[in-house]
Design goal:
mainly beta
Length: about 70
Amino acid sequence: MNKKNKIKIVVNGKLLTVNIKFSLKNLIEKFKTPINKVAIELNEEIVDKKKLNKIFLKSKDRIEIVHFIGGG
């Protein structure tokens, strides 16, 4: 693993190492997350899901992915 091409981010409180030029869309795909059933927060700001492929992660970014759960 070439450390020069990697960055460290935090996803739901867990440290993760990903490639440089890794987008939020890549992250969602990596976790096989159903996009219509989650809210995504990047550095304490809610992300517009239409822009996921345009948002590239940076070292030390903090991402929270919250799943919606229905019930009654």
